[in-house]
Amino acid sequence: MIRGRLIIFSILIGLLVSYNLTGYTVLLLILIGALVKTARSADRRLTGLIVLSLAAVTLRMLAIDDQLNPPDTIPSDSYLVEVKQTSWTVDGDRLRFQGMADNGKVSHEVMVVHKISSEQEKEERSTIIPSHLLIEGELNQPGRATNFNQFDYRTYLNRKNITYVLYTNEIEDVDLAQSFFERAYKTDPFRQDLLDYCDRIFQPTTGRYIKALIFADRRELGAEVTDTFKQLGIIHLLSISGLHVSLLIGMLDKIMTGLTVTRESKRLVFLFILPVFYIFAGFGISIYRAAMQAWIRYLSDTIDCHLTSLDCWGLTFCIAVIVRPMIIFSVGFQLSFLMSFILLFLSDQVFFRELSSLKQIVFVNFALFCFSVPILSFHFYELSWGVLFLNSLFVPYVTYLLMPVLLILFVTSPLLALTQFGLFLDELARWVIVIMEEGSLIIDQGMSLMIITGRLSGSQTVLWFALCILGLLQVEKRKKLVSTLPVAAVLVLLLNMNTYSPIGQVIMIDVGQGDAVLIKEPFGRGSILIDTGGLQVWNEKEEWQIRNNDYTLGEDVLIPVMKSLGIRTLDQLVITHPHWDHYGAMSELIDSFPVKTLVMNDFTKTHSVFRQSLSQIKGSALNVRILKPDEPVKLTDQLHVIHDNWTDQTNENNQSIVLLGRYGRLDWLFTGDIEEVREKNIMKHFPELNADVLKVAHHGSGTSTHEAFLSKIDPDYALISVGENNWFGHPYQETLDQLSRHGAALFRTDENGSILYNYSDIKYLDYHLQKKGIFNVMTDNDIKESNDENSF
């Protein structure tokens, strides 16, 4: 029989999709062969089901291949766009929404980005959401990540079946009547009507939470609330999930029992209500998993098939990845299915059922935390251990108080909305929400719960899961708690592996037209960031234009890169000189990430514009170190300041701090933005100076890196940090020609993205890193090793 063996089927489909999409064809075939043999020996019908599903998945893969290889740009054209109204978001002077764009020849699902031109237009766009728009604009593929472990917007949209961003030139409302079957987003207008209803009927606070917890619309939850819940590790409580579906089923079941509804009739009711709830909850993956799993269970009972809970889980999994294969890479999919599997698995275990209720809660929280670590590490590079005890506090609060109040308030609102009792319920819900928010804020301010882990490698992830399973087996065999200590010790070691890795790194981070070089020494000996980059803002924005969620170098580039490497504290931040493209992200970075020491010279400290940025830093525990021009300084054992007694202050670029470091077996020269006259002064004071790796000064400008200096330094490798298609024309062709004549292997961020150098002090690792280390660059969102002439 198939019953009880569908878990095999779901594993096979998951492996097929993931390996097909990542290209491990040989391993894929081996896994298919092994699992098909297992399935065949178990049940011939299961084998047939597997073969049919393999065919279905293969066809979906072919379709996805076509979708993922479109032209980079489609010239400007006019498009009739059907608006997905529930994605409509106005933020400052930017309007963004998802839509189906049709130019009469071809249709594309797109993300539309429109720059709002006036405060009046913003007011109109915030008030009225049209169903259709006529847009003239250009389709462009979304931008790709150019830094290691950075969020990749193109991949994110591709996995939602969106291949283009439509940037508008002109936009016009269109009154177009479409039947239900002609719409691309058939149920979305009904869902938007419900969201609008919440805005009209309820207080803003309760309305926001009804939309978030019943209709899965979190757009209006404040950043402070979501950040606090994320820090505490309970962000899942702000999203509709299996918890809410179970609560809904339980409430309806009790109501129908009180009305003496038969069991068979209850099943029919749930078979109707669950799909409706899924649709109006916005098709989220967590709600899909819970609703579909319950729906399959009720259906199997109705037709006397009586599938097990794990069978229902397996079928739910298979349907999801066959219909939308790319969803397997979604963090929501991974967490929802893994956590629900762990719960189902434990509920079937004899040892677990024999535990007391309190021990079950503790054990479940700990098991879910352990198994979620690799997923959280991969996607966010950090996790909160607060979930171990805060779940036990907040889950009952949300389950037995907040959700029932919100559900009752919403369901009864057509009758009681404007009555005294309705207003009382609304105010009661608001106070329940306020108590939860204030309590979470107090806990967050009083405790530091986040652990930065970095991104676990593939081998570390496999080892982690294997150890978790081993720990479960030991508990199942009722061994003493002390027997699990070796497993726990290795898990703790893995959590700190990135922070104290024996591999050191020097990374030129792609910050566009600016500089930022990160140095992470082996075994956690120290981390230094030389400059931060800075996004140029040419025109000051009015208050109505300011966006709440805008791209920044600190939050979107620097901090994710550091966290992904396991850096928990930045030991030193060096600002070479007071130009915005070198320090623009400084205050944001220091406010959002622990920095021990800020290093600068006297000229930078007294610069009036720089002092304004320095005054914006909120923390007071920052240590500031001022370097003197004639003072020999060693920032670390490997990094020294070049003190050439430079005193001329007529040129700000020449005030740059110049650093000489030794990483791996290479000497590195970091030159800031110095120009030819400063280069000559350094040559005069340090006639024996040379370097294997040169950070080319001033983004490759013609005013720097002159012939005599290059001949003196004689670098084997040259690194240029420069923005793509920048206004300054950097790097200059004459600079590139000079570097080429000197035989320096060239890496540049506008073409290669971020540049990563790995090295180690350990002999064995040093040998595998080709003795002097290895350069890697970002190309097409993959880490590609440099070719033979550019590697060591």
From TrEMBL:
It is a multi-pass membrane protein. It comes from the Bacteria. GO terms for cellular component: plasma membrane. The chain crosses the membrane at residues 6-34, 46-63, 234-256, 268-291, 326-346, 358-381, 401-424, 458-475, 482-500. Its main location: membrane. It is found in: Cell membrane. Pfam families: Competence, DUF4131, Lactamase_B. Keywords: Cell membrane, Membrane, Transmembrane, Transmembrane helix. Residues 513-724 form the Metallo-beta-lactamase domain. One of its GO terms (biological process) is establishment of competence for transformation. Signal peptide: none annotated. This is Competence protein ComEC. It comes from Alkalibacterium pelagium.
